[in-house]
Amino acid sequence: MTTMKLDMAGAATVLSIVLAAAELNLPIRVTGWLCLAENMPSSTAQRPEDVISIYGGKTVEVLNTDAEGRLVLADGIVAASEEQPDAIVDVATLTGAQMIALGNRTFGVMGHESLRDSLVEAADVAGESAWGMPIPEEALAGFRSDVADLTNTGAREGGMLNAAAFLREFVGDRTDADEDALDPETRRIPWAHVDIAGPSFNDKGPYGYIPKGGTGVTVRTLISYLEGLARA
Predict the structure, then answer these.
(1) By CB atoms within 10 Å of each CB, which of 7, 18, 22, 146 scores lowest?
(2) Of 20, 12, 223, which Cα lies nearest the Cα of 125?
């Protein structure tokens, strides 16, 4: 709990992006969903093997009480889907596995292929380091539960990719989608998951334009992406 300045960076980033888009008068509607929770023990805290209901009705068996971020994110993704946006991008300090895979300066981007690639390109334009990662088809198998729709933790190997597979289950379908489409990706609202666990907080010395402390990573990337949409 001593790293909450890091762990709240996803919501802080989303807020900063919305404010920056407004200050720049970008001609695009941007809605920010801040998925917040008080990270304190209490008599109402979740316990191992609790089964909780996510907004929208899916149930999740809690096997790791420290994997709470994906639970509030799931609520937010369902709520955002109800608005039928052109795209959903979630930004979160979600997994320690991100740091193992990509280190402390490169964030991972997963999800809808064209949206994922557009965000990686926007990061390159903005001078930030992003890397597109896959969501393996077998990843969701690690979230099977006997008492709920899903568990909140999957296999340890490929933890960043597995967490993205979990979140994808809460992305809503487009109302204009072909219900008979065999590929679920053609029915879902385009969505991307950005894991900033390592790059979000710099506990060492400054480098480049990055200060010590909170870095604001992906604010430049998402603004660059929105500017590209505005030009288009």
Answers:
(1) 146
(2) 223
E strands present in 45-111: 51-53, 59-61, 88-92, 106-111
**What's the pLDDT score for residue 133?**
98
Helix (H) or strand (E) holding 72: helix 69-82
Distance from C-alpha of 223 to C-alpha of 123, rounded to nearest angstrom: 10
The CA distance from 53 to 34, in Å, is 19
- Angle of the 219-231 helix axis to the 9-23 helix axis, nearest 10: 40
Supply the pTM of this predicted model. Answer: 0.94
Tell me how far apart the alpha carbons of residues 209 and 67 are, in angstroms, rounded to a whole number: 31
* Phi, psi at 6, each rounded to 5°: -80, -45
Pairing of strands 106-111, 129-132: parallel
- Residue 48: how many CB atoms within 10 A of its CB? 9
The DSSP call for residue 189 is: P
Hey, is 99 helix, strand or coil? helix
Contacts of 44 (CB under 8 A, 6+ apart): none
pLDDT in tens, 181-199: 667 778 899 999 999 999 9
What is the CATH T-level fold of the domain 4-30+46-231, as seen in this structure? Aminopeptidase (3.40.630)
